[in-house]
Write a structure and sequence with these properties.
- The protein is an alpha/beta fold.
- It has 9 helices and 16 strands.
- A 7-stranded mixed β-sheet has the order 3-2-1-4-5-7-8, with helices on both faces. Strands 10, 11, 12, 13, 14, 15 and 16 form a 7-stranded antiparallel β-sheet that branches.
- The mean pLDDT is 97.
Length: 314
C-alpha cells in the first residue's frame, strides 16, 4: 500500500522505521517542527531526519491546513498511519485514503486516550500498559481497534522502563495491523466507550507532590517521573526539593501530612495521606533527593535532623 505517515518524536520515528522496513511504500511524511516543550524534548528522535535519510518527502506542520490537504490528494495514499500526531486531524484528511487512517496509540484503549498515557497509568497503579492500533474517527483515540498488545507493569517499574517496553511494540503492532487491512479486512473491534478515559498533557503542576495522597500513590508518582522526565518535587524550608527515589515505609506513621518524621532503613519517612492523623497509614520513605542547585544525594544525608514539614508551596 501507498502510505502517508503522520508522526513525531521517538514514537513517530519507530513507526516510520517499521513502515520503511515493511513491504509498503512510504510516499510522504508529515511531522511537527522541533519543540522546546519539556516533555517534547524527551524521546525526541527526529521523524524528519529519518524520512530525509531514506529520500521520503517531508512536510512540516503544527496542524493540518488546506495546502496540506491538496498535497495529500496529489500523492494519493491508500492509507495514513499516525503516531504521536499532537494536533487535531480533520475528517477530510483522515478519510482521504481508501483505507482511512490507522492511529498507533501507547495505551490499552479505550483507557488512557489522550496524552502521557504511560505516566498516568503508572501513577494509577495499572497492572498492564500497551500499544493499540485503531482506525481514526471523529473522536480522539476512539476508533475501532485493529491490533492491541500489552506488557505487565512490575512493582518497581519506572515510566522509563515502560516506555522502552511499549515502544518496542510499535513495529509489530503497526505491521500486523497493516497486514490485516491490506488483506481486505474491514471489520474490527469497537471500543467500549463506557470504559473510556481521556488524559491531558503533563505539566509542572502534575509533578508537585501533594502529601495528602497515600504513600502508595506517591511512590508510583516518583517512579512515573523517572529520568529523563522532570522529577516529582516538594518544598523544604522554602526551597524546591526533587524526590529522585522513594519507597513505601514498612511502619505506619501518624500525624500531619508532610511531616519529616523518622529514619527507616535507607530512607527518611514523610507522613502521608489525608487521614494520617489516624496512625493507620504507611509513610513515603524518601531515599534520594536533588536540591535546587542540582546536587543529588541520599535523603539520609540531606535530612540532618528530623522534624519540620515538606510542603506543596514555598
Amino acid at each position: 500500500m501507498r502510505v502517508v505517515m503522520f508522526g513525531y518524536q521517538t514514537w513517530g520515528h519507530r513507526t516510520l522505521q517499521a513502515l520503511l522496513d515493511s513491504e509498503h511504500d512510504v510516499v510522504t511524511v508529515v511531522t511537527h517542527p522541533r519543540s522546546d516543550h519539556a516533555y517534547e524534548k524527551i524521546w525526541s528522535d527526529s521523524v524528519a531526519d529519518l524520512a530525509e535519510k531514506h529520500g521520503v518527502p517531508v512536510i512540516i506542520r503544527n496542524r493540518p491546513d488546506d495546502e496540506l490537504l491538496e498535497q495529500l490528494k496529489e500523492v494519493a495514499p491508500d492509507i495514513i498511519v499516525a503516531n504521536n500526531w499532537r494536533t487535531w486531524m480533520p475528517p477530510e484528511i483522515y478519510n482521504l485514503p481508501r483505507h482511512g487512517t490507522l492511529n498507533i496509540h501507547d495505551s490499552l484503549l479505550p483507557a488512557y486516550a489522550g496524552f502521557s498515557p504511560i505516566i498516568w497509568a503508572l501513577i494509577n497503579g495499572e497492572q498492564e500498559v500497551g500499544v493499540t492500533a485503531h482506525m481514526m474517527d471523529e473522536e480522539l483515540d476512539a476508533g475501532d481497534i485493529v491490533v492491541q498488545r500489552a506488557v505487565t507493569v512490575g512493582p518497581t517499574d519506572t515510566a522509563t522502563d515502560l516506555f522502552h517496553r511499549t515502544v518496542d511494540l510499535i513495529a509489530p503492532v503497526t505491521v500486523e495491523a497493516l497486514g490485516l487491512i491490506a488483506s481486505g479486512q474491514t471489520e474490527f473491534t469497537p471500543q467500549d466507550r463506557s470504559k473510556a478515559s481521556f488524559f491531558h498533557k503533563r505539566a509542572e503542576e502534575d509533578i508537585r507532590i501533594d502529601w495528602n495522597w497515600p504513600a502508595e500513590d506517591l511512590e508510583r508518582l516518583v517512579r512515573a517521573q523517572s529520568a529523563p522526565y522532570p522529577a516529582a518535587f516538594t518544598f523544604h524550608r522554602g526551597q524546591r526539593l526533587e524526590v529522585v527515589s522513594a519507597v513505601v515505609s514498612q511502619g505506619r506513621y501518624g500525624g500531619t501530612p508532610g511531616r519529616v518524621f523518622y529514619r527507616e532503613g535507607d530512607g527518611v519517612v514523610i507522613v502521608a495521606g489525608a487521614d494520617a492523623r489516624t496512625g493507620r497509614n504507611r509513610g513515603l520513605a524518601i531515599t534520594r533527593v536533588r536540591t535546587a542547585d542540582g546536587h543529588e544525594l541520599p535523603a539520609t544525608e540531606y535530612f540532618t535532623s528530623m522534624g519540620g514539614y515538606l510542603t506543596g508551596r514555598p
